[in-house]
Amino acid sequence: MAILQIRRIQHSIYAVLVFVLQFSSLQFPSHGYNVPDKYFINCGSDSNVSVNGVVYVGESNPIARLSRRSKTESNESHVPSPLYQTARIFRSESWYEFNIGTSGTYLVRLHFFSFSSPSNLYSARFNVSVPRFWLLQNFDARNVTDNNHAPVKEFFINITSPTPNFRITFRPLPSSFAFVNAIELFLLPLHLIDDVVARFTYSGNNRGLATFNGLYSRVLETKLRLNVGGQIVINDNLLRKWSPDDSYLVYPENAKVSYPFSGQIEYRVEDDSEGPNANKFTAPTNVYGTAKEIKNISAGAGDAKLLNITWRLPVEKNIDHLLRLHFCDYFSSQIDLTFFILSIYDINVMPINIDGNVYSELPAPYYYDFVVHSDDSGFMRVSVTPVESAKKVGAFLNGLEIMEIIEASNSVPPDPAESVSKHKRLPVVLGSVIGGLIMVFAGVIGFRKIRKQKPVENSDWLPILATTGGSSQCRLTEGTSQGSTLPNINLGLKIPLLDLQLATNNFHASQIIGEGGFGIVYKGVLENGMVVAVKRGEPGSLQGLPEFQAEIMVLSQIRHRHLVSLIGYCDDSFEMILVYEYLEKGTLREHLFNKNLPRLSWRHRLEICIGAASGLNYLHNGPARGIIHRDVKSTNILLDENHVAKVADFGLSRTGPLDHQHYVTTVVKGSFGYLDPEYFRSQQLTEKSDVYSFGVVLLEVLCARAVIDPSLPTEQINLAEWGMLCKNKGILQEIVDPSIKGQIDQNSLKKFSETVEKCLQEDGSGRPTMGDVLWDLEYALQLQRGANGIHGETNEDSSSTSSASASLQLPNVRCLPSLSTLSEADDSIIRGFLPVRN
């Protein structure tokens, strides 16, 4: 018993310390950003060197620890930079160790220049690693150094928690050695690179845009950074180098160098904003103020090569790369004059059009990120192509970056510092803890006085009713990188990690049933026999923590037959695991697109839509206060064994506006194709944003096609735009899923299409409430049933027993303490007694 008490005390102290460290290291956006003055190291020298206004500190000034198994060499001959007069030489495994005080994404630059020396740096062969990642393997100095420039290897590394011993380790290959001339390591601005970006797939059955989650759990290595249409740019706001693009053009005769912009490129967003709007750290004005544009936008259609500008870019073969493309329309006199197609590997990705959704005035600097898996050619092709509808300005591009995505490797030897037992680090002087907390609270008070009024994600957590008992543990009490914490809670839903390991056969690959933005989903069977879905975030990472918290906070407050039920959660050993009821039929999207599954009849599709609308209506108007889902899409609508719909995935959910407000201001998040254009443009989130996204789902259900399909003609790429165009032309019937065309009553289709049109109104104030949508869908179902007859459905597959109004019971789970007795009668509608509504 005494040992147990000691462990509890140790755990509590450790949790408090983690909280203090996390809170003290927050990147508060309102403080702005300046490039830190550390770490810039002039390796192999005791003297400081100033290069382009940056001071590289000699090693006699111990700003970083250095293992002593090394020597120095110097050079007196001519070199491109004073940094390359000296080098640190390693004959055995050696390292530089850095004290990282703030979580975030760091830029690491390693300088290598093989000057003439007794060691003959030209012959060096070595590996370089950081914890869990190889930065360089079999590095050969002969392949990278010439007389014109010194190679600089640049990496983006996310460090998820403060550490006093982050190491860059140099490992010579047998019979060789390692060296380095200079090292740069500094914290980058918030959101310079985001964790979740678009993935573009150009081959197979799933061509188009999807979501790639987890850049923060990888390392990025810069391969190319091009100032398209401009000259070399050095030492921008982040000390980066931009090179001319001329040598990468496939058809140089198609492109002309645009005149440099003589005015002022203004960044119209804060320095910590998320894409696609650029800020001053995204790229410098030298890049956005120059471009290459198409030379002849009226070239003949018979000669394909005259219709685009194409860059052929060297990349590693068969590896994921992050491609960032920079645009700035300084040619047009107003918005909506530019329209062209972006292609990768000659496959259309998306239209590029400044139509007011990005900015309301020009020039407008912005960018797009895509994860692209390279083919086996060793090159990536990127093209911009004008279309006939372009009114004035043809295709253009201002800048381009390519970064190779490096995966973690089990072959990286662990650093000795990593093997230190946590228990050896636990003893702490209690007075230091109390003093640290006092400083934190004082900092909070001061911060509240000076912070600016601007959207900060996760700053408005859903309220939770007070409970008795102990406080939450581990992750639920830690601060996030945005500065938000959860209140102390004791939901009675915590499940030990061991139980979930047993339930999933220790998270065995054979139990995997899906993978989403948060993590991998496993099928499991708890000790009581309940079948569950276990969604596991990446162990040990703080990325995804806001989504983990939001999901618990939302689902702990709501119970509804059309919302997925939370069975429990686990945050033991720095895990983030959510456990849900298991819905064996999977996602709505699978039943629309998977040809191996039975086709859903029109009646069943209507019932699924009604169920999802009922769940969303409950979120917006239920007793738990207005909740905006913010990521409504067909993959977040799950089906149980009877095809009853349940809305899932509340990681991006936000509380709705207060009574005196009409919207919540927040950074834009959501999924391509479903995103409300008004929300995207204004960053003002309302419940009508969910209504728009649900309107896209309704079209998806009707047509059974992807919401974004770059392989289609331009006007058909976006399903929402194409569907409304067909509706206005009176040809919507032509794009209905062929498998249900013969089943749909025309009156039911008319009511359904009118509902879709109302949901997809450009102006949110013109859209219906989710309650109105629910009523209209119920009416469309009644019209369908009336056409099929009261007792039979002769034109449909009636084998399913699905019914959105069936009497369903929640799984036999532990009671949710917050709102466990909520009634669902408020949003129920009795079928068969619906009045006609105009």
How do the strands and helices of this protein lay out in sequence?
Elements: H1 2-24, E1 40-42, E2 49-51, E3 54-58, E4 65-66, E5 70-74, E6 86-90, E7 94-100, E8 104-111, E9 125-130, E10 133-140, E11 152-159, E12 163-172, E13 178-180, E14 182-187, E15 196-201, E16 208-213, E17 219-227, E18 233-234, E19 241-244, E20 255-257, H2 285-288, E21 292-294, E22 309-314, E23 320-328, E24 340-344, E25 347-352, E26 365-373, E27 379-386, E28 396-397, E29 399-406, H3 422-425, H4 430-450, H5 497-503, E30 512-515, E31 520-525, E32 531-536, H6 545-555, E33 566-570, E34 577-581, E35 586-587, H7 588-593, H8 602-621, E36 627-628, E37 637-639, E38 645-647, E39 654-655, E40 664-665, H9 677-682, E41 684-685, H10 687-703, H11 719-729, H12 746-759, H13 770-788
Parallel strand pairs: 1-3, 15-26, 17-19
Antiparallel strand pairs: 1-14, 2-3, 4-7, 5-6, 6-13, 7-12, 8-11, 8-14, 9-10, 9-12, 11-17, 15-16, 17-29, 18-19, 20-21, 21-28, 22-27, 23-26, 23-29, 24-25, 24-27, 30-31, 31-32, 32-34, 33-34, 35-37, 36-39, 37-38, 40-41
Helix pairs in contact: 1-4, 8-10, 8-13, 10-12, 12-13
Number of domains: 5
Mean pLDDT: 78
Beta-strand residue fraction: 15-25%
> How many helices does DSSP assign?
13
Radius of gyration: 29 Å
In CATH, the homologous superfamily of the largest domain goes by the name Transferase(Phosphotransferase) domain 1
Give a count of the beta strands, DSSP E runs of length 2 or more: 41
EC number: 2.7.11.1
Binding site for ATP: 535
Signal peptide: 1-32
Enzyme class: transferase
